Amino acid sequence: MKIKVGICGYGNLGRGVESGILQNPDIELAAVFTRRKPVESLKINSNVPVIHIDNAAEWVDKIDVMILCGGSANDLPIQCPSLAKMFNTIDSFDTHAKIPEYFKSVDLSAKANNKVSIISIGWDPGLFSIARLYAESVLPEGGTHTFWGPGVSQGHSDAVRRVDGVADAIQYTIPVDEAVLKVKTGEKAEFTTREKHTRVCYVVAKDGADLSKIENEIVEMPHYFDEYNTTVNFISQDELKRDHGALPHGGIVIRAGKTGADSNQVIEFSLKLDSNPEFTASVLIAYARAAYRLASKNDFGAKTIFDIPPILLSRNDRDEVVKNLL
Predict the structure, then answer these.
(1) Helices 12-21, 276-296: inter-axial angle, 10-degree rounding
(2) H/E/C letters for each residue in 166-215?
(3) How far apart are CA 10 and CA 17, in angstroms?
(4) Integer CA distances (angstroms), 309 to 99, 126, 132, 173, 313, in order
C-alpha cells in the first residue's frame, strides 16, 4: 500500500517534490493544492488533480501526508498550523531565528488534532543541523562553522520577491573564502555574520517602482539581509531569465576540535547541488515517509529532524538497511 501525499504550493519546490516522488515507488502523489487561479494542470502528472487550497478539507481522508512547499516569510507560519489540523505535514521552514516559536505554534495544532508535523526539513535547517549535532557531540572541545553557497537561496529569493515593487528576483549567498580557509586549517576563529558570507540580489522592478526604497527594504530586512554585506542589482526580466535561470546551491559544515592533549581533528559535511529545490524536495519526501510511520504509531505533535530515527527514512526494511549500510 503506497503512502499518499499531497503537495501544497506548486513553485520550484513543489515541482521538485512532484518529480522526486517518481523515484520513490512506495509513495504516490494524490493531489496538488494551490492558490493560483485559474488552476492549471501539472507538467509531469497530468492525471493528478490540482485543487484550490480553499478546498483542502475535502481531501482529509485521501492524503496521508501533506508536503508544504510555500515560503517561510509569509506562507508557512499561516499555512502549517492551519493544515496541521487536518493533515500530517512536512515543511522546510528556514528562518532559523524563528524556528522555536514556529515549532510551538505547529505543535499546539498538531497535538490537538492527533497529527504529525515535521518542521524545518531540508538541508539547512535539516541535514546540516544533524551534521552540527553529531560533530559537536563527538568533539565537545572545538568550534563549528557553517558556510552556505555559492548558490541560490530559495527562502531569501522568495523574501525579496515579496518586497513591494519587485516583479521578480533571485538571491545568491556567497561564502567569504578567507573565513573558510581559516576554519579548514583548524585555526581557531570567531566571525561575525558579515565576515562569513555576502549576499547578492538580482531584482526585476515593477514599472514605476522606487528603486531606492526597494534596495533599502532588502538590505535592512531582519533575519534575511540586515546582518550581511548585501548588493542589490536591478536588471530586466530577460536578463534574469537568461543569466539566472539555474538554481544551484550547497555548503559545508566544519567543526575543528581537539581530542586528548593536542590532537587536532576536523569534521566536514558538504553538499554541492545542481538544483537546490530538487534536493530539498528529496529530503522532504524521505521525511514524509517518516511522518507516515510516526502517525501510524500515534506519535503525534511537531517534530524536528533531531527527533526522527534515521531508520524511518528508508523505504527498505531494518534488516536490509543494517546489512547494506551499517
Answers:
(1) 60
(2) EEEEEEEEEECHHHHHHHHCCCCCCCCHHHHEEEEEEEEECCCCCHHHHH
(3) 9
(4) 20, 13, 16, 31, 8
C-alpha cell belonging to residue 27: 509513495
CA geometry: angle 17, 20, 24, nearest 5 deg: 125
Helices (H) and strands (E) in the chain, counts: 11, 14
DSSP string, 219-243: HT-TTTTTTSEEEEEE--HHHHHHH
Residues in Cβ contact with 223 at an 8 Å cutoff, skipping those fewer than 6 apart: 95, 96, 97, 98
What is the distance of C-alpha 83 from the center of its chain?
18
In this structure, are residues 21 and 27 in contact, taking their beta carbons and an 8 Å threshold?
Answer: yes
Evaluate whether 16 touches 278 at the Cβ level (below 8 Å): yes
Q: What is the pLDDT of residues 22-73, one digit of tens each?
A: 999 999 999 999 988 766 777 778 889 999 999 999 999 999 999 999 988 8
Q: What distance in Å separates the CA atoms of residue 251 and residue 220, rounded to the nearest whole number?
A: 24
pTM above 0.70, yes or no: yes
Taking the CA atoms of 125, 143, 140 and 223 in sequence, report the sign of the dihedral they define.
negative
pLDDT confidence bin for 204, thresholds 50/70/90: very high
Pairing mode of beta strands 249-259, 142-148:
antiparallel
3-state secondary structure of 317: coil
Residues 103, 109, 115, CA angle at the centre, nearest 5°? 95
